[in-house]
Amino acid sequence: MTRTDEERRERQQDVTAVVLKILGVAVAVGLVIGLGAWLMVKALGLDSADTPGQSLAQVGPVTPLPSSALPVPGASDLPTPDNTGLVTTSPGAPATGALYLNATPVFVSPMERINLTGQWPGHDNESLLVQRFEGGQWADFGVQVHVNIGTFETYVMTGRQGDQKFRVYDPTSKTASNEVTVTVG
Description:
This protein is an alpha+beta fold. About 25% of the residues lie in helices and about 30% in strands.
């Protein structure tokens, strides 16, 4: 054997040793991660096989949602609130084509969901800003909603107590909806 053959063999052995070391480290890291994940699952009780008898409880909404999603045009002669305090029809619904807003429920606790629904027929894909009456003027609330097939829906939550007035506003056409009042307390 010549010297170059020996050098090649030594180099090949060195490369093989390095590859085996890298492979060993990768296997060790994989085992550590797998063992750590298994221990976390056991410690947090996330493995349902070891906890027979425990099941998830059925949870319903804290506050019932409105029974009708959107106001019905021309339904002003129908009864308005039911005994849950939710508005199920649209009292004083505007004439066809007007921007209309409805809020449910009208009495909420601080940071409880206030559903805002409405209609603006013929104005699909318009972006509306939710505004609140603050300090004698309308201020953007930080929520946008888009009109889709003449209707829109979103929700807001506020910690500010007392009567809160909301409306939706289209900055492009400078059109505002009716105002709705929700009592937070």
